[in-house]
Specification:
The complex is a heterodimer. Chain A is built from ten helices and 15 strands. Chain A is of the alpha/beta class. Chain B is an all-alpha fold. Chain B has 13 helices and no strands. In chain B, helix 2 runs antiparallel to helix 11. Classes of the chains: A alpha/beta, B mainly alpha. At the A-B interface, strand 9, helix 3, helix 5 and helix 6 of A face helix 8, helix 9 and helix 11 of B.
Chain lengths: 348, 318
């Protein structure tokens, strides 16, 4: 939405290059602002066919895009998209007074990705999400959305805060809360109608909360409240969803439902970035993991990121590796062989 | 008692022009304060409301001494104090609670200091503190009406933002609202509501008009529009009933209005649906269904079938 139609999102496993994985390609607009910091993007003027593409290898590092002409790319499983949300940060630092919450974060987020953000308490996870959403101004560095500097909240990026700040006694129903996602985007002179109500109900349906649409928000359990706020975010119809601890305090079925929903959203063209404490869940349910401890420690597919070294650097003294996926979700405080874990995740 | 004597009893106060004005004024004040007061209670700003009411004092006094319009003086004072509270609160070194306490006491003392230098000190202060509803003139009434309608119109037009900011500040901010500006707008609306209420119920009791009817309404329903409407009706109703009590029992009007509102609150508190003795009949209709009690959830129906129609799918993990 809001962006020209002459773009194309590519989300496929490129058949070229040594283990090159899915990438995103688009036409000109991306080039105009791409910094080529890691040699990820190649512009149309350097390539004959008018496309630029970037690829990421299995270590999560950018690599030269495969040498495939556009028609050949199109012959593969290309899904045209109206816009490619691409959020990136460059040397992003956030300080609170003398305290540094984030230092020098360089991050690129493409379309159709599920990213998990992990780190100990106070590592700057929420700060990063807020900075990406434009809620918090960075001390140094920039956040770019399709090359445009993000200075304030943007309708294409939807930020779902943690639940704690809400007054649960507030006299609003589940449906009212979901409708709030529409109301603020609408001209104040246009009342909300039946179609908006339907949109909100559909969003509630997607998170399995439709049958409780009439209930006052404070009567719900923690996991249910979380899903209502997710529905409110869905109603806002942004391209990038930034979720702060969406799995906090939710039960196993809800967790499963959310994981499934995220995958559906990604396949529908959205980008999801969520903060969590659950390493094994993140490893199993995200395409890319970001480990943060005041700086970006690791960024890449779970298999590449989940090394004892990375985890030790992120979480401190003892390495914490998750149980294999067959075990119940949780974190085992014991070192395990990373390679075995890699296999079970089946990094293709 | 026969019908005609009842009617006579009800209509008797209307024989006096000052009582007609008083009734109209208290109805206006009840409605305005009921609506803004709903947001005051929802946001937990009762202390802020009290502070603004007191902080307005020096503005009114200065306007009085200079012979200017008391409304303008009051507004200038209210805006200055709310900006000051915002500035101290935003500095992060003191809580806004503390900022309110410091500024409102200081502003009130300034008002007292100025007025104590006047000759008619005692009478003026009493009028200001407790209101003089029987002295409401036609001009006062017009002013109250215009300001009140303005406040209500702004609140209706900006309802989505005001509700979002009151309910979930982080969300409102993430959706692009400037919290500081919306807070200031609300404080301005609140100040206006307080100013137009001063003459009717007085400085000390205006807090009751803001908080009590809204709190009563909140006990009776879980729906926001209904809370606002009920608060307005309860506010106006308490005003009218209080004025009758004042007229026939010879007690101070501001006090009797507030006492009626407090009585209604006590009744609601004791007999509110779900929590009180008189539960269901009215309550069920005014309340949301309760998830366990009222919604009969067939197992496996609602939750499991999410979004199946919306997406043809790959497995979750690649």
């Amino acid at each position: 939405m809001g962006v020209g139609g002459d773009r194309l999102a590519i989300s496929l496993r490129l058949p070229v290059g040594d283990q090159a994985k899915a990438g995103v390609a688009g036409r000109q607009p991306i080039l105009e602002h791409s910094e080529h910091r890691r040699g990820i993007l190649v512009g149309p003027r350097e390539r004959e066919n008018g496309f630029l593409a970037f690829a990421r290898n299995d270590n999560g590092q950018g690599c030269r895009p495969p040498d495939v002409p556009v028609p050949a790319l199109l012959a593969h499983d290309l899904k045209p998209a109206t816009a490619i949300p691409r959020l990136e940060t460059s040397a992003l630092s956030v300080h609170f007074g003398d305290r540094s919450a984030l230092e020098g974060v360089d991050l690129r987020i493409g379309a159709r990705e599920i990213l998990s953000l992990l780190g100990p308490n106070g590592a700057g996870k929420s700060t990063l999400l807020k900075a990406l959403a434009g809620v918090l101004a960075p001390t140094h560095g920039v956040v770019l959305l399709d090359g445009q500097r993000v200075r304030r909240p943007n309708s294409r990026v939807v930020y779902v805060p943690q639940r704690s700040g809400v007054d649960w006694h507030f006299p609003v129903s589940v449906l009212d809360v979901a409708m709030m996602g529409i109301g603020l985007r609408r001209s104040r002179w246009r009342p909300l109608g039946a179609s908006d109500r339907q949109a909100a109900l559909t969003a509630l349906e997607r998170v399995g909360m439709r049958r409780l649409a009439g209930v006052q928000i404070g009567q719900l359990s923690g996991g249910q409240q979380q899903r209502v706020f997710l529905a409110r975010a869905l109603v806002q119809d942004g391209e990038i969803l930034l979720l702060d601890e969406p799995f906090a305090g939710v039960d196993a079925p809800t967790q499963e439902l959310l994981v499934d929903l995220f995958a559906r959203l990604r396949d529908g063209g959205k980008t999801i970035l969520y903060a969590t404490h659950d390493l094994s869940l993140a490893a199993a349910s995200s395409d890319r993991m970001l480990l943060v401890h005041h700086r970006l420690i690791a960024d890449g597919p779970p298999a590449a990121v989940m090394t004892a070294e990375n985890l030790r650097e992120t979480f401190g003294g003892r390495a914490v590796l998750p149980m294999p996926p067959s075990s119940p979700p949780g974190i085992a405080v014991a070192e395990r062989e990373v390679s075995r874990h890699d296999q079970s995740l089946g990094s293709a | 008692m026969s019908d005609s004597s009842w009617l006579g009893w009800l209509l008797d106060p209307f024989g006096h022009a000052f009582m007609r004005n008083a009734f109209l004024a208290i109805i206006l004040v009840g409605v305005i304060c009921g609506v803004t007061g709903t947001f005051v209670t929802l946001r937990g700003l009762a202390f802020m409301g009290d502070a603004l009411a007191h902080a307005i004092f020096p503005g009114v006094v200065i306007a009085f001494v200079l012979g200017g319009n008391f409304l303008i003086g009051a507004l200038v004072a209210a805006v200055l104090v709310s900006l000051g509270i915002g500035a101290i609160g935003q500095s992060g070194r003191l809580s806004s609670d503390t900022a309110i306490g410091v500024l409102f006491a200081g502003a009130f003392a300034l008002g007292v200091a100025i007025i104590s230098a006047q000759r008619t000190y005692a009478r003026d202060v009493a009028g200001f503190l407790f209101g003089s509803i029987l002295g409401v003139s036609g001009d006062d009434l017009r002013l109250t009406g215009i300001v009140g309608v303005g406040v209500l119109v702004v609140m209706v037009v900006c309802r989505r933002e005001l509700i979002a900011v009151a309910f979930d500040r982080t969300f409102a901010q993430a959706a692009g609202l400037n919290l500081w500006r919306w807070d200031q707008l609300f404080l301005l609306l609140l100040s206006l509501s307080i100013v137009v209420s001063l003459q009717t119920v007085g400085n000390i009791l205006v807090l009751a008009m803001l908080v009590t009817p809204a709190a009563t309404a909140r006990l009776l329903t879980d729906r926001l529009p209904l809370t606002v409407g009920l608060a307005a009706v309860i506010g106006a109703g308490s005003g009218v009933a209080g004025l009758y009590a004042s007229y026939y029992l010879g007690i101070a009007s501001g006090a009797s209005v507030v006492l009626v509102a407090t009585l209604l609150f006590a009744l609601a508190f004791l007999f509110a649906p779900h929590t009180g003795l008189v539960s269901s009949a009215v309550g069920r209709r005014l309340h949301f269904p309760h998830p366990e009690r009222d919604v009969f959830a067939p197992t496996g129906e609602g939750e499991a079938t999410l979004g199946e129609a919306t997406a043809p799918q790959r497995p979750a993990a690649r």
